[in-house]
Structure formats: structure tokens, C-alpha cells
Design goal:
mainly alpha
Length: about 150
């Protein structure tokens, strides 16, 4: 019976326990990578390193120069656009002030016309009062003249 239990245990471990097979595959993969691909990968890394170094040494300064020139051009264009926008704003402000000035002038003309009407009315009132006063004084002087003529001469 022990032998059967041992055989069943062996069969079970072979069917269900995959660790030995996985470990063997891992060792094979690592050995394959280290032996066959190790030098190839290091050569690829060295080539990449050379390319990056060349790009940094040669292309980077050219690109930086180009970028700086383009930024300078963009800055000039933005300054020109900003100047144009300021001019447009200034013109609009002047137009608004001009419109406001016209409105104010019309308002002042209306006020001046009202002032002149008021002055004319006041002048007429003063003229009437003056005419009344002149009339009263005339009557008073005429009465005084009559009184003087009635009195015998001294």
C-alpha cells in the first residue's frame, strides 16, 4: 500500500505541480538571453547612446537656434498685433469720446437756448416793470406839474 500511495503522490505531483517545468523554462530563457542576445542588446544600447550623444552635440544647438529665431519672430508678430490692437482701441475710444463730445455739445446748445429764452422772458418782465415805473413816474410828475401850476408863484 505504501508503494501505491507513493506512486499516486508521484503521479499527482507530476500532473499538478508545474514548478520544475517552469523553473527549467526560466533557466533556459535566461541562458538563451545571456548567451545569444547579451552582446546584441549591449551593442544596440551602445548605438542608441551614440545617436543620442550626436543629437545632443549636433542637432540640439541647431534646433535651439531655430527655436530661438522662431520665438523672436513670434514675439515680433505678437508685439505688432498688440500695437495694432492698441491703435484700434485708441480709435474706438476717440470715436466714443467724439460721440460723447457731440452729445455734450448738443446738450449745451439746448441749455444755451433755454438760457436765452429765460433771459428774454426776464428782459420782457424788466421792460414791463420799467414801462410801468416810467408810466407811474410820468403820472406822478404830471400831477406834480399840475400841482405846481395850481400854486401861485412865489
Amino acid at each position: 500500500m505504501d508503494k501505491i500511495a507513493q506512486d499516486v503522490g508521484d503521479i499527482q505531483s507530476r500532473l499538478l505541480d508545474h514548478r520544475p517545468v517552469i523553473n527549467a523554462e526560466i533557466r533556459y530563457f535566461v541562458r538563451e538571453f545571456e548567451e545569444k542576445r547579451g552582446h546584441r542588446e549591449s551593442r544596440l544600447l551602445e548605438n542608441l547612446n551614440k545617436m543620442v550623444t550626436e543629437n545632443n552635440d549636433q542637432l540640439m544647438p541647431n534646433n535651439l537656434e531655430s527655436i530661438n529665431q522662431q520665438l523672436f519672430d513670434i514675439t515680433k508678430r505678437l508685439e505688432a498685433a498688440n500695437h495694432m490692437a492698441e491703435r484700434v482701441q485708441q480709435r474706438e475710444l476717440e470715436a466714443q469720446q467724439s460721440n460723447q463730445l457731440q452729445v455734450n455739445m448738443e446738450h449745451l446748445k439746448e441749455e444755451w437756448a433755454e438760457f436765452l429764452k429765460e433771459q428774454k422772458r426776464l428782459k420782457e418782465e424788466v421792460d414791463e416793470e420799467h414801462a410801468k415805473a416810467v408810466g407811474q413816474l410820468s403820472i406822478q410828475y404830471n400831477e406834480m406839474k399840475k400841482d405846481l401850476t395850481k400854486c401861485p408863484s412865489i
